[in-house]
Amino acid sequence: MTGGRTSDGSAGDADYAAIGGGYADFRRPDPRIAQAIARALGEARTVVNVGAGAGSYEAAAPEVTPVEPSASMRAQRPSHLAPAIDAVAEELPFADGSFDAAMTTFSVHQWSDVTAGLREMRRVARGPVAVLTCDPARVTDFWLYAYAPGVLDTEARRYPSVATIAAALGGEVSVEPVPIPADCTDGFNEAYYARPERLLDPAARQACSAWSFVDTATADAYTGRLRRDLADGTWDARYGALREQPSYEGSLVLVRAVPA
Predict the structure, then answer these.
(1) Of 8, 79, 97, 144, which sits with the fewest C-beta atoms within 10 Å of its C-beta?
(2) How far apart are CA 34 and CA 42, in angstroms?
(3) pLDDT tens for residues 39-59?
(4) Per DSSP, which regions of 56-205 are E strands?
């Protein structure tokens, strides 16, 4: 691995000992997103889930081996899921071709060396590699940028480009935009496109790691502006049509690569 770990073993730039406590409550897998992941994995039976966290989306495959470096995230895994192996994406402790497929969800932006991590996924998977991530070129298109530019600038900077992911994986690569449902149960920022009030909840924001990169005073200023515009109708005048929109096509994408 390139770089170090945080106090609880987190291998990226966010300390999940500090911010990961509510992930299991706010980052619950959405069944419609899970279906997209299952389609990408195809007939794969054995799947390694890299950066597995609390186990979101592991129901997409029959037999999952989770890998998660953060102790606080491993501790949140429900008892019916397999315990996660303490390892990092850049050094997966498996032989070549150990699994039918590999998956990772909302994780690549945490890795210290994304190219090395993706190449490791390709090395240990005989078949498809599925990467659920956000396209940094589209992150700041979201309405939240008008209120919290520092949060989304941070998010866009952290996510690797789709081209970088494709080049690291090689083979035949497809990129599928993933529509976000209005009642999405996985609480990343864009999941609240039609429910802006949810972002006034500090616990909901804490479950979106990009918020941890702005200080408390800045976050309070951002949310204060949003609270004011919700109260006086400004937000609804600008973006209210989104409340009636059943889904939103934002930055969420599913990158799938199979060997050439």
Answers:
(1) 79
(2) 12
(3) 999 999 999 999 999 898 998
(4) 63-67, 101-105, 129-134, 172-177, 180-181
Q: Tell me what pLDDT residue 14 has.
A: 52
What average pLDDT is seen over the chain? 92
CB atoms within 10 A of CB 259: 13
């989304």: which residue's tokens? 152
The amino acid at residue 194 is A
Distance CA 157, CA 236 (A): 29
The pTM assigned to this predicted structure is 0.88
Supply 257's token pair: 């690569």
Homologous superfamily of 16-258 in CATH?
A: Vaccinia Virus protein VP39 (3.40.50.150)
Half-sphere exposure in the Cβ direction for 245 (13 Å, CA): 15
Instruction: Sketch the domain layout of the chain as residue ranges.
Output: 16-258
Alpha helices by DSSP H, the chain: 16-19, 23-26, 31-41, 71-75, 114-124, 149-158, 162-169, 202-206, 216-232, 234-239
